[in-house]
Automatic annotation (TrEMBL):
This is DNA-binding protein (MmcQ/YjbR family). The keyword Isomerase does not apply. Keywords: DNA-binding. InterPro entries: YjbR-like_sf (IPR038056), YjbR/MT2646/Rv2570-like (IPR058532). One of its GO terms (molecular function) is DNA binding. It holds the Pfam family YjbR. The lineage of its organism: Bacteria, Bacillati, Actinomycetota, Actinomycetes, Micrococcales.
Amino acid sequence: MEHPQVIDPGHPLVERIRAICLAYPEAVEVEAWGRPTFRAGKKIFVTVSASMDHPFTFVFKPAPGERLAYLEEPRFYSPPYWGPGGWLALEIDAPDTDWVRVAEIIDTSYRQVALVRQITALDSAGGQNGPERLV
């Protein structure tokens, strides 16, 4: 059964998330469940569009201890299917979206699933791989 496309992969918000995600070592984009997913090798670190009702969101894996703090903010929520595993979603269609923060969240999510060699490659460039350089 083929899933319907949840969001246009060429939408500017998807393009912006794509640019951030694909800058990571061994990051690839794979369409799954009608959505763009970004993976560190085989492991997903970002999925665009938490649900049909929330297409302009992205799903990420927060660092341990950050989840509850994020949930205190209205743009963050526990998405269907992913939420029970500790993942969160963030609304990104607001004009005041803080893209430096989005990049920092993506960086953390990548580090939660990446292999040691991928994190080593990321960190080997020193400060040149900071998330703020990606926005």
